[in-house]
Amino acid sequence: MKLSHRLSEIINMIGPQYEHIWDCCCDHGLLGAQILKQKLATTTHFVDIVPELMQQVEHKLQLFFPLSTDITSHWQVHCIDVARLPLNDYQGRQLVIIAGVGGDLMLQMVQQLISAHPSLSLDFLLCPVHHVAKLRAMLNVSQCQLIDEQLICENRRYYELLYVSQPSANQINLTSAPLISLFGDKIWQSHCAEQSLVIQRYLNKLLKHYSKTANTKSALDSRVIEGYQQIADSL
């Protein structure tokens, strides 16, 4: 099955030399299967909490990527809560990919993983649905450093792809990479008319959304409105 534009862009963002890539909330396993095909990691981990889904994914993996015949296509299936990933059981560079869930839930997942593994340096590639500002705020407070970010549009829905690195606790003060922005940086940079239109429409949508809660907005919402308005005024 052909990958969607969103999943293709996630694949294109993945850097080299990962020993372990965790495809979380993997649904039908399309993203992880492409990671296997392109051999982007020594081991690809398929993660979801729904047993029936993981049984289907494992059956497809055994059919198309039999472990006994191709040691370079190593994979593991985990039916587990994302917040409980056994990251300490594995060595080498690890990338955790979470896509297709809301920003609030994703925030909880990432926060719990960071808290549970303070001695590990971890990379995250995140594609939340809604509430991106809250997620960015948490990543910023957690000292997550920006690797890359993109804004895409698929089926009239907008997605921010956030690729960040979380240094281990003893490395946080030793790195000079920029922290992830509260409102985005690279996602507002355009090199073509089509992307400029995507950016403008997305900004308008964000400002319209937050203006609806003008009478009940939190301190974070007020800061977000101001931040997005400043971006809109600068474009």
From TrEMBL:
<protein>
    <submittedName>
        <fullName>tRNA (Adenine(22)-N(1))-methyltransferase TrmK</fullName>
    </submittedName>
</protein>
<dbReference type="InterPro" id="IPR016876">
    <property type="entry name" value="UCP028234"/>
</dbReference>
<dbReference type="InterPro" id="IPR029063">
    <property type="entry name" value="SAM-dependent_MTases_sf"/>
</dbReference>
<dbReference type="Pfam" id="PF12847">
    <property type="entry name" value="Methyltransf_18"/>
</dbReference>
